[in-house]
């Protein structure tokens, strides 16, 4: 039979068993942490009932018709496409230039 001294010198007992415990214990620990993660995501995804009614198609099927009516009211003849400032341009200065150009044009 093995003595305690022989067990301490055995490489399998010295390195293999702690490694095996780490791998098996880690898998159980990761399972618990991922379960917490998914539970918290499920809680965070819950919406207000009013917002959920707007998002959920079955509860409010007239969203497309309402949006169509809003778009019909917009005057598309006077619409202009205005370019926004580039990242290297000063946004305040560029907005002032755009406003002055719009004021000059009838």
Notes on the structure:
- With 106 residues, this protein is an all-alpha fold.
- The chain is built from 5 helices and no strands.
- The chain has helices at 4-9, 11-44, 49-55, 63-73, 91-104.
- The longest helix has 34 residues, at 11-44.
- The mean pLDDT is 79.
- Belongs to the COX16 family.
- Keywords: Membrane, Mitochondrion, Mitochondrion inner membrane, Transmembrane, Transmembrane helix.
- This is Cytochrome c oxidase assembly protein COX16 homolog, mitochondrial.
Give a short summary of the structure:
It comes from Pogonophryne albipinna. With 106 residues, the chain is mainly alpha-helical.
Net shape: elongated
Low-pLDDT segments, ≥5 res: none
Classify the helix fraction into a percent range: 55-70%
Strand content: under 5%
User: H/E element string?
Assistant: HHHHH
Topology, number of strands: 0
Count of runs of 4 or more consecutive helical residues? 5
Mean of all residue-level pLDDT scores: 79
Radius of gyration: 33 Å
Derived from helix and strand composition plus strand pairing, the structural class reads mainly alpha
Quick one: biggest sheet?
none
Amino- and carboxy-terminal Cα gap: 103 Å
